[in-house]
Target: Nucleotidyltransferase family protein
Amino acid sequence: MTPNAEDLTRQDTAPDAQGAHAPYAGGSPHHDSPVTHHDLPADDLPPDLNQAILEAAKQVGALLKRGEHDFALAGSVAVYAHGGTGNLQHDADFAIRPEDAEAVAATLAEAGLTVYAPPEDWLLKAKCLGQDIDLIFELGGEPVTTELLGRAVQLPVDSVQMPVLAPTDLVRALLAAFSEHHCDFGAVLPIARQLRERVDWESLRDAFGDAPMPAAFLYLLERLEVIAPRGGDG
Model:
């Protein structure tokens, strides 16, 4: 099965040896003290998993807005918000600043969501309506910043307006995550096709320079006539 594009910005987290995650209890994102929270019920979710993920994203986005947190929708749901039609059958991603992790976790926990810290130290995880939620404070190895969130655009996710990462920032994070060990061009190619008119490709070329993996992907896009060569019309 082909992985979704957000897999390229992280490695999947796995349960601990007992098959359970350590719930997040505030303080440092590495906190491992057990605290019990109740996930919101999934009984009334639509049978379509894509729609279920959208419902969870809407729920979390509404909670973060109500809590007046700075955030931006990321990952495949953000691509959907920008007009993409990709497969959402994975999870919903939200970009937050590292310094906001504790407050965001508290807001979600107070609403009844389970929030926990996985082994990776650059995100928190939550459960909403039976779906996985990633609260990411690093994208492509770089911390989420106020400037990044400031470039987000307000878009509707179904019926809920929320900030969504700008297309160029979405693609930049995906390209930055390419490595010799994790380089699935096939997962990112559909996103590049869907967002090509909205991405500043020249700025991405400048940002990555001769870095081999991003350069190879950009060359592939040129050969497939998804984007114009550097300096060309596109």
Observations:
- Helices lie at 49-66, 75-81, 101-110, 146-150, 167-176, 185-195, 201-208, 212-223.
